[in-house]
Amino acid sequence: SDSDAASASPFAGVLLQIQEFVNFVYSKFSSLFVTSDTFGEDLLKAVISLFVVVNPIGKVPLFVTLTEKMEKQNKRLVSKNAIITTAVLLTIFAVAGIQVLSIFGISIYSFMVAGGILLFIISIEFLTHGEWRYSGSSVSGDSGIVPLAFPLLAGPGAITTVIISLQAYGWIVSIISIVFVVLVTYLVLHVENPLL
């Protein structure tokens, strides 16, 4: 029985060290990933606000208008370019939005006004001509970037929303909300047109 206690003792010591290590790692990771006691509520608020501003369902008619004369492969390219560009823009502005704007001496309010003017010009273009005339036929994916990804999907409202989300809820909540909204946007664009 003394030999059992001696052999259990080193094993118990290793288990205790493993348990201490796991507790240490858990405490470090939990402090990184959970920013508050209201993580779920904050995430829900961030996702809903970004989803409402991006409004992927409302962008379906514009996507159809922009791609109605394109082949299936070109529609896929436009969709892919729009989704990737939207994700990259929103992530960059979520992480470094205030810094990027301040480098150029732009306030968030000036950015919102300029984006509103750009959206106004695009809407006048759609109303008067019924289509976006400035996507070159040489590069079919261009209309996936302008105007679909920017300023329609990742416009001034969405960029402002992710900047405010970062300040209010932290970067983890902001990044998760961007990933969720971009995935939903991808699904909406592909469910709308299953031929893609």
Written overview of the protein:
- It is a single chain.
- With 196 residues, the chain is an all-alpha fold.
- 81% of the residues lie in helices and 0% in strands.
- Helix 2 runs antiparallel to helix 7 (156-169), helix 4 packs across helix 6 and helix 4 (72-103) packs antiparallel against helix 8.
- The chain starts with a helix and ends with a helix.
How would you describe this structure in keywords?
196 residues, mainly alpha, 0% strand
Q: Fraction of residues in helices?
A: over 70%
Basic shape = elongated
What structural class should be given to the helix and strand makeup? mainly alpha
How many strands? 0
Low-confidence stretches: 1-7
Please state the oligomeric state of the protein chains shown. single chain
Summarize the helices and strands and which ones pair or pack.
Elements: H1 2-33, H2 39-54, H3 60-67, H4 72-103, H5 108-129, H6 142-153, H7 156-169, H8 171-192
Helix pairs in contact: 2-7, 2-8, 4-6, 4-7, 4-8, 7-8
Quick structural gist:
The protein has eight helices and no strands. With 196 residues, it is mostly helical.
